[in-house]
Amino acid sequence: YSMIRRPPRCTLFPYTTLFRSQAIEAVKSGMIDFAVVSTPAAVEAPLKEIVLESFQEVLVGGRTFMALGSQEISLWELKNYPLICLGRETMTFQFYNQLFLSYGLELSPDTEVATTDQILPLVRHELGLAFVPKSMAREAIMKREIVQIPLKEEIPKRDICMVFDNQHPLSAAARQLKNMILQTVEEEKGE
Question: pTM value?
Answer without folding.
Answer: 0.80
